[in-house]
Specification:
The chain has 636 residues and is α/β, with parallel strands linked by helices. It folds into three domains: 3-271, Aminohydrolase, N-terminal nucleophile (Ntn) domain (Glutamine Phosphoribosylpyrophosphate, subunit 1, domain 1); 278-462, Rossmann fold; 473-618, Glucose-6-phosphate isomerase like protein, domain 1 (Rossmann fold), CATH 3.40.50.10490. Helices cover 35% and strands 22% of the residues. It has 19 helices and 25 strands. The model is unreliable at 1-9 (pLDDT under 50). The protein binds 5-amino-5-deoxy-1-O-phosphono-D-mannitol.
Length: 636
């Protein structure tokens, strides 16, 4: 049966070599990586010439229970661990990682998809190898074992020759197609963990006499903040003595060394019940951090990495924004700001659709890719397509050195810090800030806005952390409302202009966290069909624009409120302080501070995040790890 489960596509992996208990280090690392997937988890520890393996379907707690029951050695210093998000097939114990070679000596964990697994599996089966899982990963364990048997002559020794596992990994990687991060240990190579990467993240943590490998620095941040990010097609070997990096053909290589700016407390719940609550509360700081130091003394906006000249930006005649999910909603808001400030046409595309409709791109097109993780495969593929068509690519990203910024021509990093909850909150607000900055930068470089005009908007942006803080201070009635509406079969969200993406974001949060039917609509579209959904008591959130902005927008939304009210809706208006016009028509009014219209999503989104979080908690759901989801979606 050659239909392997492409089952380890977005996973968390961690490896350790040093003097501590590898089991403890690996389990702690997996706890921090569980956001990447939580369908199954497993570990392999090298101990006295044997591999101790444990793996279980379900969350990490199942694995921890099994380890406690089965009595694992906790002192050995070499090990690997894996947490999985399944893309195809049921997550079972059998398909959980690590996977072990037939001789029981090699254990492998994997993030990604090995596209030529069917051919490799057939070849291995013809050589008599019996598979014990349906995964593509298992091929790698058997291939490594075969390579070691073929190329290692010292069979009389109980220890593998130095570098043998890494050499075998290089030879195996030369045969693999697809995207993968692999970690391997061998029973006869105590003290050594070998890793490889292609199109999937892998970072090395450099401690004092100890080294770590992980998909994300969060896995080892409590031990070290010094890290090396591996380049494409590289193999790494770690031991207590150091780290060796080569390409797939053995040529010595160096990764990209960096210091992690945040510490372990940023990856802890810090007294909150859920990471999501903590991350909602961190938004004022995240917005302030993303804005900090962006304006030079001469009043110019600074991006982080710019491999584009000002002339390249002046030549831009069209902007495409590509992103997924919440990041896409940030892009929808950005369109209003970019077109208003730069007068360049701007289109927003779901990254997963972008390249399939063959968009018209050339050197004068700027593609802005927005991604918290920087690893979202749909967005990465859109970036690659744009680059193939010679477009310029600018990334807005929260993860230093991840694939999307690395492959882009310019980068603006959001400084949200680690976002652990699957539902995006602080990443969204900081993406909005970054989009505003990109719009201002473009307007300035193209001479459409003068430095003082840019500074005036930046000044308004600098008021936003306090405005978000003010919203957070008034959320108790929203939580009460959430508890009272937790049993509603359906909730609708409507808005106009920048309020429309806010409505979409409110609905997405409720869907993913509360598993409720929720829809966001442009308020003007309701009468073209969706208004038929409204029944007596249907909750409808209305994002009301400022009456101080374009009056016509406010008046139209008030009319929309009356339309839904007339059909029995229970109206919850999000309106700015002092807007008395909404009161006669709304059942509940959630007040947000006065802000310029374009910046209003920064405050209007917050009550919707709080609402969704509270509904989910009331319904008894896992707020941080909603069902069927993972934080980084590294499959198309
Ligand atoms: O890492 P990215 O920003 O590229 O992720 C994009 C989406 O998968 C993400 O925003 C997703 O929609 C969130 N879970 C929504 O809360």
């Amino acid at each position: 049966m050659l239909t392997a489960l492409r089952s380890q596509a977005m996973c968390g992996i961690v490896g350790y070599a040093g003097a501590r208990s590898a089991l403890e280090v690996v389990l702690n690392g997996l706890r921090r990586l569980e956001y990447r997937g939580y369908d199954s988890a497993g570990v392999a520890i090298v101990d006295g010439g044997v591999l101790q393996i444990e793996k279980r379907a379900g969350k990490l707690s199942n694995l921890e229970k099994a380890i406690a029951e089965n009595g694992f050695d906790t002192s050995a210093g070499t090990g690997i661990g894996h947490t999985r998000w399944a893309t195809h097939g049921a997550p079972t114990d059998r398909n959980a990682h690590p996977h072990v070679s037939v001789d029981g000596r090699v254990a492998v964990i994997h993030n990604g998809i090995i596209e030529n697994f069917a051919k490799l599996r057939l070849e291995l089966e013809e050589r008599g190898v019996e598979f014990s899982s349906d995964t593509d990963t298992e091929c790698v364990a058997h291939l490594l074992a075969l390579e070691l048997t073929t190329h290692t002559s010292a069979q009389d020794s109980t220890t593998l020759p130095e570098g043998a596992l890494a050499a075998a990994m290089r030879r195996v990687c030369q045969r693999l197609e697809g995207a993968f991060t692999l970690l391997a240990v061998h029973a006869d190579a105590p003290g050594v963990v070998v890793g490889a990467r292609r199109n999937s993240p892998l970072v090395v943590g450099c401690g004092d006499g100890e080294y770590f490998l992980a998909s994300d620095v969060a896995a080892f941040i409590e031990h070290t903040r010094e890290a090396i990010e591996l380049g494409q097609d590289q193999v790494v070997e770690i031991s207590a003595a150091g780290v060796t990096i080569t390409d797939f053909f053995g040529t010595p290589a160096t990764g990209n060394s960096f210091h992690v700016a945040w510490d372990v407390s940023a990856a802890e719940k810090g007294g909150y019940d859920y990471f999501m609550l903590k991350e909602i509360a961190e938004q004022p700081q995240a917005v302030a951090d993303t804005l900090r130091g962006r304006l030079t003394e001469t009043g110019e906006i600074m991006l982080d990495e710019v491999r584009l000249s000002d002339q390249d930006l002046r030549d831009v005649d069209k902007v495409f924004i590509v992103a997924c999910g919440t990041a896409y909603h940030a892009g929808l808001v950005a369109k209003y700001a970019i077109e208003h400030w730069t007068r360049i046409p701007c289109e927003v595309e779901l990254a997963s659709e972008f390249r399939y409709r063959d968009p018209v791109l050339d050197r004068s097109t700027l593609v802005v890719a927005i991604s918290q993780s920087g690893e979202t495969m749909d967005t990465l593929m859109a970036v690659r397509h744009a680059k193939e068509q010679k477009a310029r690519v600018l990334a807005i990203c929260n993860t230093n050195g991840s694939s999307i910024p690395r492959e882009s021509d310019a980068v603006l990093y959001t400084h949200a810090g680690p976002e652990i909850a699957v539902a995006s909150t602080k990443a969204f607000l900081t993406q909005l800030v970054a989009c505003y900055l990109v719009g201002l930068h473009l307007a300035q470089v193209r001479g459409i806005k003068y430095a003082d005009e840019v500074a005036a908007v930046v000044e308004q942006l600098q008021q936003m952390p306090a405005a978000v803080e003010a919203v957070l201070g008034t959320m108790e009635p929203v939580r009460e409302l959430a508890r009272s509406l937790a049993g509603s079969p359906s909730v609708l969200f409507i808005g106009r202009h920048v309020g429309y993406p806010v409505a979409l974001e409110g609905a997405l949060k409720l869907k993913e966290l509360a598993y409720m039917h929720a829809e966001g609509f442009a308020a003007g579209e309701l009468k073209h069909g969706p208004i038929a959904l409204i029944d007596k008591g249907t909750p409808v959130f209305v994002v009301v624009p400022s009456p101080r902005g374009r009056g016509v927008l406010h008046d139209k939304v008030i009319s929309n409120i009356q339309e839904v009210r007339a059909r029995g809706a229970r109206v919850i208006a999000i309106a700015e302080e002092g807007d008395a016009a909404v009161e006669p028509f709304a059942d509940h009014v959630i007040r947000v501070p006065r802000t310029p219209t374009l910046l209003s999503p920064l405050v209007a989104t917050v009550p919707l995040q709080v609402f969704a979080c509270e509904v989910a908690a009331t319904r008894g759901h896992d707020v941080d790890q909603p069902r069927n989801l993972a934080k980084s979606v590294t499959v198309e």
